[in-house]
Amino acid sequence: MIQRNILKAKTFINESVDRVLEVSRERFPFKWEPNGLLNRQPNSSSPAWWLFAREIWRNPRAMGTAFPSSPQLAQTMAKLIPQPDKQTLVVELGAGTGIVTAALLQRGIIAERLIPIEQSAGLAHYLQQNFPHMRVINGDALHLSELLGHDCQRVSTIVSGLPFRSLPRSLKHGIMAQIDKVLPPNGLLIQFTYDLSGRLSYLPDHFKRVATRFVWSNFPPARIDVFQSFKVSKSG
Ligand SMILES: C[S@@+](CC[C@H](N)C(=O)[O-])C[C@H]1O[C@@H](n2cnc3c(N)ncnc32)[C@H](O)[C@@H]1O
């Protein structure tokens, strides 16, 4: 009972933060954006918080939160990832300012086997400057297989920071179809969400949850789910 009330309160806080962002953007649109501060190309010395805030202002639904993940959330996600073998790749969707990317490297995944994908050109540029040995892709996860090209067949794990809760329904399903296409049988999808109690309704049935972790110290508190694809291999 107490736990259910805590969950309700946390969900309420999360939704209020989303709403405040939406309303403030509607009420205070920056008319000067085209030539202004928001349009400057970031460089590796731009503070991450500023880049994140700038993207929230531009595209709150795609960011889905007012805050980058905490190091605790990033490290907990990274620990859930099995070390890829010599052939396989880890793809990170919605890499943002790279907090999870850095945790994945720290976990021992080598830069050449990690591909961050980020839809914001500014954030992708920042990531490439900060992680020069990595192939950072600036693109929409909706076109995942096309963006990966031949590497598509080498993916074993997808780590996702995509804000599925705030993305439009058709986009959510389109991205999930791409994830399903790219992941091989037994492949893993690691996703975090601020929805602490809900189910991820957009997942195909053959994705089964095999692990869950809660990170209460993150703001907002988050749940990490590991899903395994039990689809049947085409070759039988
Ligand atoms: C909640 S933030 C997570 C950022 C970072 N991974 C973290 O944990 O702090 C979501 C990120 O997903 C990116 N994103 C949203 N929709 C996307 C899409 N369709 N394709 C690729 N990236 C997307 C946003 O630009 C943003 O950087």
Overview of this structure, please?
Keywords: Methyltransferase, Transferase. One of its GO terms (molecular function) is methyltransferase activity. This is Ribosomal RNA adenine methylase transferase. InterPro entries: SAM-dependent_MTases_sf (IPR029063). It is globular, with a radius of gyration of 18 Å. Helix 4 (71-79) packs across helix 5 (99-106). 37% of the residues lie in helices and 17% in strands. By secondary structure, the chain is an alpha/beta fold. It has helices at 2-27, 48-58, 60-63, 71-79, 99-106, 121-130, 144-148, 169-182, and strands at 89-93, 114-118, 137-138, 155-160, 188-193, 207-215, 222-229. The longest helix is centred in the first third of the chain and has 26 residues, at 2-27. Strands 3-2-1-4-5-7-6 form a 7-stranded mixed β-sheet, sandwiched between helices. The protein has one domain (1-236): 3-Layer(aba) Sandwich (Rossmann fold).
In a nutshell, what does this entry contain?
This protein is an alpha/beta fold and 236 residues long.
Topology:
Layout: H1 2-27, H2 48-58, H3 60-63, H4 71-79, E1 89-93, H5 99-106, E2 114-118, H6 121-130, E3 137-138, H7 144-148, E4 155-160, H8 169-182, E5 188-193, E6 207-215, E7 222-229
Parallel strand pairs: 1-2, 1-4, 2-3, 4-5
Antiparallel strand pairs: 5-7, 6-7
The structure holds S-adenosylmethionine.
S-adenosylmethionine (SAM) is lined by residues 55, 62-65, 68-69, 93-96, 99-100, 117-120, 123, 140-142, 161-163.
